[in-house]
C-alpha cells in the first residue's frame, strides 16, 4: 500500500449531537508519523487520518487514538494497527495532480467523493485504470485560509496515477503556452470537455504532470580520494614581497594631529585675537542710548540702597507667640475658638 492513499475515519459510539475531539499519535512518540495527517473540522464532525506512505515507511505501525467527550469529559483510547507493504499491481508512471477549489480535504476523503473524482477524471485520460495516489490540503501547500463566506473552501490537491499515457488534452493544459496564458490572467488551453464539472471545480492553471516512464539517469557516485591534493606547478603560492609600514603609520598618526593643531590655533585666534573690546562697543553706541542705560542703572542702585537701610518692624506673624501677662512663650490656656488668627498690631 505504499503507493495509495490511506484514510481512516475516527468515530465513537455517541449521538451526533455530542461534541467529540480526537488526539492521535504514534505509539511511543508524541506525534504522528511524517506521512500521516489528522484533520477534524469541528467537534461535531468526524475526524480523519489520511496520508500516503513512502517505501521507507514499510512495516508495522501502531497509532493510538484518544477520544474526548466534551460534554461528559469521558475519554476512550483505541489502537490502530497499520501494516504497510509493497504496492501491488502494475506501476503507475503517469501521474497528474489537480487543485480542486470547491472542496475541503475532509470532503474528499470518504470513498464516495473519491470514486466520483476518479470516474470523472477518466474522461481526461487515455483508456485505463486510474488510482488515487495522494490527497493534500491546500493549506499544507502554502494556501491561504478562506474568508468565512458561504461557498468558500480551502481547496485540496488530488494526485491520480495510471499506467496509460496522458491524453493530448492534459498535455495541452500543462504546456508552457498554457502556463503563459495563466500568468497573463487568461484561461488556460483546454481542448476537451471538462468532465469534472460541475461536481469538482478544478483550477486548470495548477495542473502538474509527472512522467516516470522514462528512467532518470543515475547520479554518478563520487570516488573517494585520499584527501591530499595533487601537486600543480601552476597553482604554487607566490612569495610575498617585503613591505615597509612606517610611512603608513606616520601618515595615519601625524595627519590627524596636524589637522587638530590647526583647528586649535584657529579657534584660539578667533577667541583671543579678534575681540572688539568695550571701547569699540561704546563708540559704536549712540549717546542717547548710553545716557538711558546709565540712568536706569543708577536708579536701580539707589533703590537697592534705600531698601537695605530702611528700618521697619517685623510683622507679628514672624515673631514667636508669648503670653503678655506671664511672659511665657507658649500661648495661654484659653478657648482657641475665641483667639483671633491674627493679633492687632499696636
TrEMBL record:
Residues 9-91 form the Dystroglycan-type cadherin-like domain. SMART domains: CADG. The keyword Cell membrane applies. Pfam families: Sarcoglycan_2, Sarcoglycan_2_C. The chain crosses the membrane at residues 249-271. It comes from the Eukaryota. GO terms for molecular function: calcium ion binding. One of its GO terms (cellular component) is cytoskeleton. Its main location: membrane. It is found in: Cell membrane, Sarcolemma; Cytoplasm, Cytoskeleton. It is a single-pass membrane protein. InterPro entries: Cadg, Cadherin-like_sf, Sarcoglycan_alpha/epsilon, Sarcoglycan_C, Sarcoglycan_N. Residues 1-19 form the signal peptide. Keywords: Cell membrane, Cytoplasm, Cytoskeleton, Glycoprotein, Membrane, Signal, Transmembrane, Transmembrane helix. Belongs to the sarcoglycan alpha/epsilon family. Component of the sarcoglycan complex, a subcomplex of the dystrophin-glycoprotein complex which forms a link between the F-actin cytoskeleton and the extracellular matrix. This is Sarcoglycan alpha. It comes from Equus caballus (Horse).
Amino acid at each position: 500500500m505504499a503507493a495509495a492513499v490511506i484514510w481512516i475515519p475516527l468515530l465513537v459510539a455517541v449521538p451526533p449531537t455530542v461534541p467529540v475531539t480526537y488526539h492521535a499519535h504514534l505509539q511511543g512518540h508524541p506525534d504522528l508519523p511524517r506521512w500521516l495527517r489528522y484533520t477534524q473540522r469541528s467537534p461535531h464532525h468526524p475526524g480523519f487520518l489520511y496520508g500516503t506512505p513512502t517505501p521507507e515507511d514499510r512495516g508495522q505501525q501502531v497509532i493510538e487514538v484518544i477520544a474526548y467527550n466534551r460534554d461528559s469529559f469521558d475519554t476512550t483510547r483505541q489502537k490502530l494497527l497499520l501494516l504497510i507493504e509493497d504496492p501491488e499491481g502494475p506501476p503507475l508512471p503517469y501521474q497528474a495532480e489537480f487543485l480542486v477549489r470547491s472542496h475541503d480535504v475532509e470532503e474528499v476523503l470518504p470513498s464516495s467523493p473519491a470514486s466520483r473524482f476518479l470516474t470523472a477524471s477518466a474522461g481526461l485520460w487515455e483508456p485505463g485504470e486510474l488510482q488515487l495516489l495522494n490527497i493534500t490540503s491546500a493549506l499544507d501547500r502554502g494556501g491561504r485560509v478562506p474568508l468565512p463566506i458561504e461557498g468558500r473552501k480551502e481547496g485540496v490537491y488530488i494526485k491520480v496515477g495510471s499506467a496509460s499515457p496522458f491524453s493530448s488534452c492534459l498535455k495541452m493544459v500543462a504546456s508552457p503556452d498554457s502556463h503563459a496564458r495563466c500568468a497573463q490572467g487568461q484561461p488556460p488551453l483546454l481542448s476537451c470537455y471538462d468532465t469534472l464539472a460541475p461536481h469538482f471545480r478544478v483550477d486548470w492553471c495548477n495542473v502538474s504532470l509527472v512522467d516516470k516512464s522514462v528512467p532518470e539517469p543515475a547520479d554518478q557516485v563520487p570516488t573517494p580520494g585520499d584527501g591530499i591534493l595533487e601537486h600543480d606547478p601552476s597553482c604554487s603560492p607566490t612569495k610575498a614581497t617585503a613591505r615597509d609600514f612606517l610611512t603608513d603609520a606616520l601618515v595615519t598618526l601625524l595627519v590627524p594631529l596636524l589637522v587638530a593643531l590647526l583647528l586649535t590655533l584657529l579657534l584660539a585666534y578667533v577667541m583671543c585675537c579678534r575681540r572688539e573690546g568695550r571701547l569699540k562697543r561704546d563708540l559704536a553706541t549712540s549717546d542717547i542710548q548710553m545716557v538711558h542705560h546709565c540712568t536706569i542703572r543708577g536708579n536701580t542702585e539707589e533703590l537697592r540702597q534705600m531698601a537695605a537701610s530702611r528700618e521697619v518692624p517685623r510683622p507679628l506673624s514672624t515673631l514667636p507667640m508669648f503670653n503678655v501677662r506671664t511672659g511665657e512663650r507658649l500661648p495661654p490656656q484659653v478657648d482657641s475658638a475665641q483667639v483671633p488668627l491674627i493679633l492687632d498690631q499696636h
